[in-house]
Amino acid sequence: MNKRKILATTSLAGCFGCHMSFLDIDERILDLIELVEFNKSPIDDIKKFTKECDIGLIEGGVCNSENVEILKEFRKHCKILVSFGECAIMGGLPALRNTIPIEECIREAYLEGPSVSDSNEEGILPNDEELPMLLNKVYPCHEIVKIDYFLPGCPPRADLIWESLYALITEQEIKLPYEVIKYD
Amino acid sequence: MKEFVTITIDDQEIKARPGEYIVDAARRNGIYIPTLCNMSGVKPAGSCRICTVNVNGRLMTSCTTPVAEGMEIETISQEIADFRKTVVELLLIEGNHFCPSCEKSGNCELQALGYRFEVMVPRFPYQFPKRDIDASNPKLIKDHNRCVLCKRCIRTILDEEGHHIFAFRYRGHQLQITIDPEYGMNMTDELAQKAAKNCPVGALLYRGKHGFEIPIGKRKYDKEPIGSDIEKLKKVKIS
Ligand code: SF4
Ligand code: SF4
Ligand code: FES
Questions:
Q1: Element housing A150 (H / E)
Q2: What is the pLDDT of residue B239?
Q3: Atom of ligand 3 at shortest range from CA of B34
Q4: Has the ipTM of the complex gone over 0.85?
Q5: DSSP secondary structure code for residue B5 in this structure
Q6: Where residue B226 falls among pLDDT bands split at 50, 70, 90?
Q7: Kind and range of the H or E run holding A137
Q8: Which CATH number fits domain B85-210: 3.30.70.20, 3.50.50.60, 3.40.190.10, 3.40.50.11270?
Q9: Count of domains in chain A?
Q10: CB pair distance less than 8 Å for A86 and B99
Q11: Is the minimum CB–CB distance between A184 and chain B shorter than 8 Å?
Q12: Where in chain B is the domain with CATH 3.30.70.20?
């Protein structure tokens, strides 16, 4: 066996559901940690890349400036990038805002929505340099950087994640069963 | 008139009924040609192009082309496989298909075609067009984000006096389905249900029913690809 592959994961504009589904591989996670070493990932809480990685898993689309930065960093440090989940692939539910002008979204969220219209009397909009800037729309990851593989699903089925990851790690070809390719 | 004509589909000789469309002849013989806009027994519209096959060296839509003596038809080739995938991808990016929040998910023919042809991601950029949802009809919700303009509703939904309930309006990329304000208001529950059922995607939703009633795993295309029922026909026949 070659040396262990190095894996990094992140959640951009996602809900962490894809990561939850990843954990849903159950006891196979024990096999996985024999095969890989995690680097930057919420799974081991490593915040910054400390090594060059073989595989990067991206959950979530790109909705703000921080997402762009992290995604580009992943592209720089990972040999293979995988978009996993509908949000990474097409923006997902956050992209429901793509047909609404950004100004209207912000007005609704902070000034006019039923839950804020009374509580934000001064009409404050979040505007701090610590906060990432919202993008005009939510972008699929492959419109920002090159993505090598795509695993659809909301979330992608645990079996799809496992089979694909296993094939990538062991450098084998993959034949996916019909039931694992789903868009929901 | 001759009783039958002989055609070949993928090197298999088939006896077809004169006047019958290629797609139907193929299906009766256990050969699945994907369709989306077409409904068996209904006058074809030829709007989606996914049923395209190679007839005597030319690409033609099999739902609109009647069989003719000696036709040589090819339904399996790299060219056709790629063509089908392209059609699905174009339809997915052209509208707003948020499958995770769609009531038709799991029972949707467009999605099922995506699964069957292993569309992991469309090769074209998502358009995110601005389209509205029309909930003005008491029986049906019409979601233009998901409509594939297949005309099934136009062709199959008529009231008892034969009035069409659905029609197209506008042109080009603004083309959309509209419900007749008068006949649409008087639509029976049965007819509204039929419209929702005949719509291959989640563009027409019947208001009298809750969405997401069938659990994941039990929906139409969860376990078996679209077209499996037709292909099973073949297996039975051979054995
Ligand atoms: S109509 Fe079909 S493809 Fe479109 S969102 Fe609904 S399930 Fe998905
Ligand atoms: S509403 Fe449904 S049946 Fe009517 S044209 Fe659109 S997709 Fe086809
Ligand atoms: S099924 Fe033939 S064109 Fe749509």
A1: strand A149-151
A2: 43
A3: 1
A4: yes
A5: E
A6: very high
A7: strand A134-139
A8: 3.30.70.20
A9: 1
A10: yes
A11: yes
A12: 85-210
